[in-house]
Amino acid sequence: MSFVAEEVLLRQYPKVSRLLLPFIVLFAASAAIGISIDRLTETWQINLLWGIAGGLVLIFWLLPVVTWLTSWIELTNQRVVIRRGWFGTKTKQASFLEVATVTTSKGSLLIGLKNGETITAEGFGKLKALVADIDYLAKNI
């Protein structure tokens, strides 16, 4: 009896363009602090400025960046795994033996399983190459 170790062939993250707005917010908050810090005289005004800037950075920069970093599609020699959410908590996976069809629709990757279920992944770039890789692996396993 032989055991084949599962090895990662490809790990693809979502499009980097999804991080454009969060980095604009980070730049704007930093610029607002840099411009305003010398003009404010009262301590409460400085604390309010730092609090508002910190809240904006936390909500509109840190959360999207961590979400982007913890979302990916992973192709191994045995299955495809789609992870989303913080710490990869939302995981969908399918063995290549279960895959019936692989298509794209409106910027989404659709993996149709033999039991009728569909796994969807959105926001990833180079979907045509990814479809070709999954299709090739599913047919040659």
UniProtKB/TrEMBL annotation:
Which stretches are transmembrane? 19-37, 49-69
Q: Boundaries of each YdbS-like PH domain copy?
A: 68-108
Task: Give the InterPro entries listed for this entry.
Answer: YdbS-like_PH
Q: Does the keyword Membrane apply?
A: yes
Listed A to Z, the keywords are: Membrane, Transmembrane, Transmembrane helix
Xref: Pfam families: bPH_2 (PF03703)
Name by which UniProt lists this protein: YdbS-like PH domain-containing protein
